[in-house]
């Protein structure tokens, strides 16, 4: 490192780092960067041996051992659970005779939610961390390092380090100071407003919706949700990324950041949606059901979430990756960002050219999707 008073350390887990020290670097800005969330992934076996996600967090320490910066990093043996797809890069590199895996991933595993990826209070510490990442890639002869779903305010740190920037798209709901859900509906075009009312009536028929957080969530609730999550995970990914123990762990260690919404028929949960609560954002993460009810996914994951955000005065709802169907339900297309360090000069040049073409297409897509907004015009 440039200063003899500063050193970088590569560790084997987030769990071995003092929680207060980690969270001080994270500034409690995002639940998915918290020590509790990342440790829950480790303790539950959701990351670690046999998963293709081997934790190797990097910290920056001052001479007295005080941690002043950190980032969550993982040696990856595949590209699953990232939601920023680089399979074509892997194929191209390996066709050229290279070895793409393992790579280094800077991320909240299985969590396509934008947020800080460099946990540092200033640009100098951020650069120390990125220098450490690049050193790991070079010394371990890895192909690359990737920081996914980077908060926009941190992009300059990656650009200053000459990392390549990639643009993507998600769909977020923005709270325009609405007093209640009807106030939000009033901002929509009449046809869209009627469609949402019809969907809600269809989904709510015969069901009760229960909101649980903190000590209200019992192991029986987690057992029910585990069944819902397994069904969705099996259909989307072939097998669930998270273990049953993960849900108990987050319920135990970060209960105040968890909101579980259940759809209940005659006293029995038939569907559920798990949300995490940030300082300004409600993050919808997982959902599933055991009974196929028309429009229930929209109700649990979108409309209930909007109601919660309005009631709590939150600025936005982020409901996960993909899904143009969210547009008709009041969500808007917004850019997301990732940053990439490619060690090989020739491969870096090819990826840079690809990203320039892709960025133009993504910008056009966002502009086009903006024209599909359900809100009143003029």
Task: Describe this structure in a few short sentences.
The chain is α+β, with helices and mostly antiparallel strands. The protein is built from eleven helices and 15 strands. The protein has two domains: 202 residues, Gcn5-related N-acetyltransferase (GNAT) (Aminopeptidase), CATH 3.40.630; 139 residues, Aminopeptidase, CATH 3.40.630.30.
Question: Your description of this structure?
Answer:
It contains eleven helices and 15 strands. α2 runs antiparallel to α9 and α7 (190-204) crosses α10. Helices cover 38% and strands 24% of the residues. The relative contact order is 0.14. It has helices at 19-26, 35-43, 87-95, 123-139, 155-160, 181-186, 190-204, 219-237, 244-253, 296-312, 345-370; strands at residues 6-10, 53-55, 58-62, 67-71, 73-76, 103-106, 119-120, 144-147, 164-174, 208-213, 258-265, 268-277, 281-289, 316-318, 332-342. β11 (258-265) and β12 (268-277) form a beta hairpin. The protein has two domains: 6-170 and 334-370, Gcn5-related N-acetyltransferase (GNAT) (Aminopeptidase, 3-Layer(aba) Sandwich), CATH 3.40.630; 176-314, 3-Layer(aba) Sandwich (Aminopeptidase). The N and C termini lie far apart (55 Å).
Helix-strand blueprint:
Elements: E1 6-10, H1 19-26, H2 35-43, E2 53-55, E3 58-62, E4 67-71, E5 73-76, H3 87-95, E6 103-106, E7 119-120, H4 123-139, E8 144-147, H5 155-160, E9 164-174, H6 181-186, H7 190-204, E10 208-213, H8 219-237, H9 244-253, E11 258-265, E12 268-277, E13 281-289, H10 296-312, E14 316-318, E15 332-342, H11 345-370
Parallel strand pairs: 6-8, 13-14
Antiparallel strand pairs: 1-3, 2-5, 3-4, 4-7, 5-6, 8-15, 9-14, 9-15, 10-11, 11-12, 12-13
Helix pairs in contact: 2-9, 7-10
């Amino acid at each position: 490192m440039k200063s003899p008073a500063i050193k970088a350390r590569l560790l084997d887990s987030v769990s071995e780092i003092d929680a207060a020290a980690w969270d001080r670097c994270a500034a409690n800005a995002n639940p998915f960067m918290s020590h509790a969330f990342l440790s829950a992934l480790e303790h539950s076996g959701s990351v670690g041996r046999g998963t293709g996600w081997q934790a190797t967090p990097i910290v920056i320490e001052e001479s007295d051992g005080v941690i002043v910066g950190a980032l969550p990093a993982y040696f990856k043996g595949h590209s699953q659970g990232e939601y920023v797809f680089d399979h074509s890069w892997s194929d191209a590199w390996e066709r050229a005779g290279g070895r793409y895996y393992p790579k280094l991933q800077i991320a909240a595993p299985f969590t396509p939610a934008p947020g800080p990826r460099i946990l540092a209070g200033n640009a100098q510490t951020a650069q120390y961390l990125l220098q450490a990442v690049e050193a790991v890639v070079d010394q371990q002869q890895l192909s690359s390092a990737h920081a996914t779903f980077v908060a926009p305010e941190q992009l300059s740190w990656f650009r200053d380090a000459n990392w390549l920037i990639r643009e993507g798209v998600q769909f977020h709901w923005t709270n325009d100071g609405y007093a209640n859900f009807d106030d939000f509906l009033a901002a929509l075009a009449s046809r869209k407003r009627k469609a949402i009312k019809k969907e809600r009536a269809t989904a709510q028929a015969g069901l009760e919706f229960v909101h649980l957080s903190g000590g209200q969530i019992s192991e029986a609730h987690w057992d029910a949700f585990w069944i819902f999550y397994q069904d969705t995970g099996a259909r989307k990914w072939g097998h669930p990324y998270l273990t049953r123990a993960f849900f108990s762990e987050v319920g135990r260690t970060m209960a105040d950041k968890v909101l579980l919404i259940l759809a209940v028929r005659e006293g029995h949960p038939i569907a559920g949606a798990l949300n995490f609560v940030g300082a300004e954002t409600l993050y919808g993460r997982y959902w599933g059901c055991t009974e196929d009810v028309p429009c229930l996914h929209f109700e649990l994951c979108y409309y209930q979430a909007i109601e919660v955000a309005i009631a709590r005065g939150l600025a936005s709802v982020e409901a996960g990756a993909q899904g143009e169907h969210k547009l008709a339900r009041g969500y808007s297309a917004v850019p997301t960002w990732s940053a990439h360090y490619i060690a090989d000069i020739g491969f870096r040049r090819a990826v840079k050219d690809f990203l320039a073409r892709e960025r133009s297409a993504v910008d056009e897509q966002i502009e086009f999707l903006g024209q599909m907004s359900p809100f009143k015009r003029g």
